[in-house]
Amino acid sequence: MELTSVVKFLENRTILVTGATGFLAKIFVEKILRVQPNVKKLYLLLRAKDNKAALQRFNTEAVAKDLFKLLREKYGANLNTFISEKATIIAGDITCEKLGVKDPNLVEEMWREVDVIVNIAATTNFDERYDVALDLNTFGAIFVLDFAKKCSKLKVLLHVSTAFVSGEKAGLILETPYNLGETLNGTSGLDIDTENKVMEETLKQLKAEGSSEQSITSAMKELGLERARKYGWPNTYVFTKAMGEMLLGNLKEDIPLVILRPTIITSTFQEPFPGWVEGIRTIDSLAVGYGKGRLTCFLGDPKAVIDVIPADMVVNAMIVSMMAHANERGSQIIYQVGSSVSNPIDFISLQDYGLRYFRANPWINKDGKPVIVGKVTVLSTMDSFHRYMALHYLLPLKVLEIVNTTLCQYFQGKCLELHRKINFVMRLIDLYGPYLFFKGIFDDMNTEKLRREAKEAGIEIDVFNFDPKSINWEDYFMNTHVPGVVKYVFK
């Protein structure tokens, strides 16, 4: 590992970023443009029908956002000119050869010029179709690797994964790779080519039977969960990400490979300003539901550590790690970026912050009245959850069904609506249940070593802070994160 100035490393670099309109990718791009305007070129790959549509999408979904306000303040009316000089927006698809780039001259140009590839493109949907998740999270990573092998100047490939490839492991989860065919439950026989064949044959059969698109989607979602759980992973997302890691480690040859595994990503801590967030993530949906008065109970262990990390710290770790491992031919290093070892926060603290915030800043409902929140009933076991559901939902549904039958289906609409609500809740518990009682702690020894050596080398740790020990969680959630989420919901 050779550490130099990160800002200096970025100067005159050419960087390819996949999934360029994703949450992390936009923060990454903004950071590079802001701290090193002398970056040579950013090739930004995203899905669109052509390059014109890609540019329009990037301008709408990235440049027009508040995230770019510091750059707008700096460059004013010249911002679009600056970005057009530094960034080439490309329509592409990581599920295709040559990343779906249609212009052969542009492909050749990238193979000649690219120094760093940052692969962020993925589907993060726990309940994704198996074919979609395999294409993006597993085989998409290999198309990116194949592209990287053709880049004559490549110094490092950075692949963003997730810490939850560990599944439901308890205890200290190390920053170690998963070997090809390795499973979490010891079941033998995991073969990625076989998984692809199973997916293709199932899809072919469904189409041959004339299944509707809705039926095919449902069946492919169920297939993903079934295959994941067969080998010990709780959902399709983390299973396909784990297989992507396996293939990268097995096929990288002499490519310097950095795999970065963030935990639960939250709003920005400092940069470009505190509290920027986009999209409602798992813990955010709970906060919004609670603030609106819709969340009266929650299933989970009150003492469980919730491993969260602000998005800008993830991006800073990405940038420092790609500098640190540039030109280390054939190397592979894994960084878990989280807080559960160095600055843990438990569920009961999050609950307390939410209660205090929404009591001081109540949500205003559509009638213009403040929503008064109270303490949430925490169900600490699956048995208590099933009892709660039986008493508050299943029993009323049974009574309603009897009345509905007596009154000639008068309440049929309400019966169906309650059925849907119950099925929705049970599906969420099925998907997220494994994390509600999660007992794992993510080791970040490699990440801590990188932080320590960066500090000792005197690089710009104030500009590229990724130390969770610097976070006061109470201040962050009360004054930064929850206000940021509320602001996003009201947009």
Automatic annotation (TrEMBL):
Record keywords: Lipid biosynthesis, Lipid metabolism, NADP, Oxidoreductase
Q: Per the record, what are the reactions this protein catalyses?
A: a long-chain fatty acyl-CoA + 2 NADPH + 2 H(+) = a long-chain primary fatty alcohol + 2 NADP(+) + CoA
EC number assigned by the record: 1.2.1.84
One Pfam annotation reads Sterile
User: Which GO MF terms are attached to this record?
Assistant: alcohol-forming long-chain fatty acyl-CoA reductase activity; alcohol-forming very long-chain fatty acyl-CoA reductase activity
Keyword Nucleotide-binding tagged = no
Q: Which InterPro entries match?
A: FAR (IPR026055), FAR_C (IPR033640), FAR_NAD-bd (IPR013120), NAD(P)-bd_dom_sf (IPR036291)
What's a GO biological-process term for it?
A: suberin biosynthetic process
As for family, the record states: Belongs to the fatty acyl-CoA reductase family.
- PANTHER family from the xrefs? FATTY ACYL-COA REDUCTASE 3 (PTHR11011:SF99), MALE STERILITY PROTEIN 2-RELATED (PTHR11011)
Protein name, UniProt field: Fatty acyl-CoA reductase
Gene assigned in the entry: LOC107768885
